Amino acid sequence: MGYSLIGYLKNLPLAYYLKGGFTQMRGPTISLFLSSQQSAALVCRGHRAQGFELQIANLPDAPPVIGMDSGIAAASRSFSQKLLTRTRARGVPRFIFVPDLAASDLYCNVHSVANLRELSIENLLESLNEDPRQVFGSWDESRKFRWEVFDSQLERVRGAFEKRFQEVIIVGIPADYCEQLEIWTEAQRATLLGIIPLSLACLKWFCSSIPIGRKTAFLLLMCSHAVLLAVVQNQKIILFREYTDDMAFVCHEIPLLASELRSDEYETYVWASHPVGEDIAVALTGTELTGEVLRQINGQAVVVRKSDGTKLELNSPIPHLLLWLENSVV
Amino acid sequence: MRYLFVSPEKVSQDQYRHAPIFRLAGVVLLIGLVLQVPLLFLGVLSWKQFQDRNAEQTSLRIELGELHKADIP
Question: What is the model's pTM?
């Protein structure tokens, strides 16, 4: 990002400075998980969880959820003010959005650099912004998307490809939804720290938190709209697929993929945003990343204080993911 | 993952508001602006003094002229 003195003077936030912005300390971070089926907010200060709220999408003035009407009446106090009061936090909030996007709202794929015509990430992003068909060949989405390019360890990359990468992961989400979130954050007089799709957040958490060694790991992400399967080798994502079929079919795919990849030793992990039903659990083979398993991986439970002052330990996947995300983004 | 999918305008806006270097630049700029007030005040004051002195000199010159006229036999 290039900054210049002229750019700074043109966009000088004088009103913000005069209102005491100079002396303002860093406010609390609110990480929001947004899905049409469930939503949650984790309020953190200084990398520590202060409060956790469920079903926040039903509150007045709540952030927009993709695929849901946001025709909610205006409230006397803003959404963030209410949330901060509930969790006894103060200051200008900073938001991290974790939307659970449907297959049509998320493009995420591993691409071999050898198959790309572009010579640098900048060129690739330019082509994607101009017309994604220049990169993918087939793209029938009329909406504009925002694009990001990552390496296999989900680090954002810039510059020429040269021989630095063999594969890149291209991720895109609808630009209009990003704009909606930006406008909503502006209305809350808050700061936007990032819009991180659920699958991306989970994959990044998995790659940086679970050492898989030489084994191949199959990570099944059970989101609201689809099941995503990622194959991880040496902490690098080598394959990413999305399934709308039933779980039994996806579980049947894993041994086939393992033999295709010539992986004798492999582990299957399951991360689900909602509790897995018994019918699905029967078909699943692998380690479910929830409860005690998550507590051991992250070293401790997510501890929040209830309004009566008692401590509450949370070990479900969403609070663990939101806390990890807060720690890695802020 | 910071500022992922956030527009460059929002990122720069956030940096201008919160980044220490820009805050410092803002402080310097505001102090500079505040310092202009006494300078402006002094400028106005000296201009006014100059105008007064000019008026006084003109009136003295007129008076001298009149005295000269009165002195002529």
Answer: 0.86
- Give chain A's domain count: 2
Chain B environment of A22 (Cβ under 8 Å): 23, 26-27
Say if the ipTM goes beyond 0.90. no
Tokens 């630009």, located at residue:
A175
Q: How far off is chain A from B35, nearest CA to CA, in Å?
A: 16
Asked whether residue A311 is assigned to any structural domain, the reply reads no
Tens-digit pLDDT string for chain A (330 aa):
677 788 888 888 888 888 877 777 788 999 999 998 889 999 998 889 999 999 888 888 899 998 777 655 556 678 888 888 888 888 889 999 999 998 889 999 999 999 898 989 999 999 999 999 999 888 888 999 999 999 999 999 988 887 788 899 999 999 999 999 999 999 998 999 999 999 999 999 999 998 888 889 999 998 888 889 999 998 889 999 988 767 778 888 888 888 888 888 889 999 998 887 777 777 777 888 988 899 999 889 999 988 777 888 999 999 999 999 999 888
How many other C-beta atoms lie within 10 A of the C-beta of residue B24? Answer: 11
- Whether residue B46 lies within 8 A of chain A, CB to CB, comes out as no
Closest chain A C-alpha to B3 CA, distance in angstroms: 4
Domain ranges of chain B: 8-71
Q: What is the DSSP string of A183-228?
A: HHHHHTT-EEEEE--HHHHHHHHHHHH---TTSEEEEEEE-SS-EE
Compute the nearest-CA separation of A146 from chain B (Å): 6
Last residue of a domain, one of A48, A75, A99: A99
**Residue contacts between A and B (CB atoms, under 8 Å):** 75
Say yes or no: A204 contacts chain B, CB-CB below 8 A.
Answer: yes
Nearest to A177 by CA among A66, A328, A30: A66
* Interface check B34 vs A, CB under 8 A: no
